Every structure is written in C-alpha cells, then in structure tokens.
Amino acid sequence: MFASAEIRGPRYERAEVVVSAPDHGPGNWAGGASCVFVKGTFWMAYRLRRPLGMGRGVGVVVAKSVDGVNFKPVCEVGRENLGAASLERPVILPTDSGWRLYLSCATPNSKHWWIDALDAERPEELPFGDRHLVLAGDDQWAVKDPVIIREPEGWRMWVCCHPLVDPGHEDRMITRYATSVDGLHWRDHG
User: Fold this and answer.
1) pLDDT tens digits for range 57-81
2) Cα separation, 181 vs 58, whole angstroms
3) Rounded-to-integer distance, Cα 89 and Cα 31, Å
4) How confident is the model at residue 26 (pLDDT cuts 50, 70, 90)?
5) What's phi and psi for 64, nearest 5 deg?
6) What is the C-alpha end-to-end distance of the chain, expressed in Å?
7) 29-38, strands of its sheet edge to edge
8) Residue boundaries of the structural domains of the chain
C-alpha cells in the first residue's frame, strides 16, 4: 500500500501581485509570464495587455528581482518593433552566449501568429538583440504561446497551434511538442 498524500492546489492567503496592470478597467492586465532563476536573480518576461480597441498586447517587459516578488523592469519590446499587431506569451531563457526572449507575434489584419526570438548578451539589451524567426506558421496554422525549457540534453517546446482553414473557428487549438539543439531550429514531434 502507498501512504496517502494530501494534494494541495494553489493557495492565495499570502499571494502578492508582482506586476500591476498598465491601467484600470476590463481588458487591462499584465501576465502570460515566464520566469527563470539564474545566479541569485529572478528574470521574468510578461505581456502588457490593453483592451481590444486600445491595442491588445502592446509590449513585453523584462524585469528582474532578487526575492521573486519585487520586480524592476529592465527593458521593454514594443509590438511596433516587430511589425506585430499584438504580442502574447513571451519566454525568457539564458543561452550559452547570453539571453534569449521568445515572442508570440500577431500578423496584422489576420488570425495568423508567428514566433520570433531576440538574442543579446545581457537581458537589458534584448530589444536591440539579434532577431530570429523561430516558427513562421503558415496559411494553415498560427503558432504562439510557447512553453520552452532548456536542459543539458537540449531544448524542449510545447507550442499552441491554431487552425486557420475554417474562418470563424480560429480559436480552436492543439498543442504540439518539438525539440531543438539550439533553441532556434525545431523538430516537430506531433
């Protein structure tokens, strides 16, 4: 027999807001974050969201914290810098030569999404870093909101894929799994 363990869900008694919404009212929030702990510092990337009529995902902020609660922004990437109509879930990770910021980018006037990455030596330099097209999507599929981890064996990604073939039904989605040796070129495993 196995000893029973109590399963616990999230607890909110001591929860704290670490990033406030950019404004008050519906449609304003900060979220879709990813966070890594590297050499005593928490590095977080999160999306700034405004209401639909005010631009949706207007930017991605990179912030740092020594305690995981009090975050100080170090840079911001605006959707205009990427030619995107909106930005969604980012991912920040260290690389062998610095830092990488993955960005989910909406193609203007469409339901299409693609994923870019910015590489820089330091997190503060990411808005001006080397830009890479990671997943382009196509006329059949939009790709966004990756979850990416890096392990000694390589990089792993779970990515949200939206079918574009049936107009009006683009919010359906599946998740696909991929692996990579460099975090830029991915092998789809279904």
Assistant:
1) 899 999 999 999 999 999 999 999 9
2) 31
3) 8
4) very high
5) -130, 160
6) 37
7) 29-38, 41-49, 57-65, 72-78
8) 29-188
What mean pLDDT is reported for the chain?
Answer: 93
Tokens of 144: 């966004």
Q: How far is residue 111 CA from its own chain's centroid?
A: 18
Structure tokens at 93: 């990770």
Cα-Cα-Cα-Cα torsion 71, 40, 12, 33, nearest 10 degrees, comes to 60
Give the whole-angstrom CA distance, residue 167 versus residue 159.
21
H or E stretch including 80?
helix 79-82
Closest CA to 91 of 139, 178, 177, 150: 150
User: Is 1's pLDDT higher than 50?
Assistant: no
pLDDT in tens, 127-172: 999 999 999 999 999 999 999 999 999 999 999 999 999 888 888 8
Q: What topology is assigned to 29-188 in CATH?
A: Tachylectin-2; Chain A (2.115.10)
Structure tokens at 97: 């030569």
